[in-house]
Design goal:
This protein is an all-alpha fold. The protein folds into 2 domains: 1-48, no CATH class; 56-228, Multidrug efflux transporter AcrB transmembrane domain (Multidrug efflux transporter AcrB transmembrane fold, Up-down Bundle). The chain is 66% helix and 2% strand. It contains 7 helices and 2 strands; from the N terminus they run ββααααααα. The chain has helices spanning 22-36, 50-80, 83-90, 92-106, 113-146, 153-186, 193-226; strands at 4-5, 8-9. A two-stranded antiparallel sheet has the order 1-2. A hairpin with a 2-residue loop joins strand 1 and strand 2 (8-9).
Amino acid sequence: MLRNDNGSLAGYVFVDVTGDDYGRYISNAGRRIRDAVKVPVGYSVSWTGRYESIATTHRRLLEVVPATLGLIFLLLYVSTQSLSRSLLVLLSVPLSAVGAIWTVYLLGYHLSVAVWVGLITLMGVDAETGIFMVLYLDDAYDRAREANRLDSPVDLREAVIQGAARRVRPKFMTVSTIVVGLIPILWSTGAGSEVMKRIAAPMVGGILTSFALELLLYPVIYYSWKSRSLPQPASRHATGPAPLGSGVLASRTREPVSG
């Protein structure tokens, strides 16, 4: 049987990959073919099949993921009108990625297209929960400033703690709703369940670590950011006349006596 690929005669060698992912297998096999097989002039070796579709998807993801992050950052900046707040909210993406990657690893899933879809969805959810955290902290900060209760780092610390504490209940309700809605998918066995599991897994693990790390790290970073605007204490080495009883000794110079 004569077969062709783009008008050239082609011979196919079918390979069943077991126990390894396609990318790693083809990287190792391609290196061994280049080292051991001398391809005659006019011949070429190429990989096709599922690997070709995976490589195409990988190239598209290299464009989609940065574009998604850029769009999220643009929307955050338009909403907050602050570069610092936008970067603070965008910090939720790596915080949630910790739990997402660990969940995918523990379940034995590869970074397939379905997993990336779950990660991209997780980015949007984290940006939404992160911006609400910043809004609660800003509200507590503005209340303390209007009441003239921001004279020291202790006052700022109390305001940040109040804002973070007010966010615990709505954050817990959001996380509980997402987790309770997605966990049954991880035990589903029907048609299409393999794809849905890989979409839900990074979302469940990511939203859990995002819940913990946002409540722990956001207030600390916010406190460090706002502490720069606090009034600085007066310097102890200010110039001026020394007060009485300060213990400062003045030395007298003895004038020469003319003879």
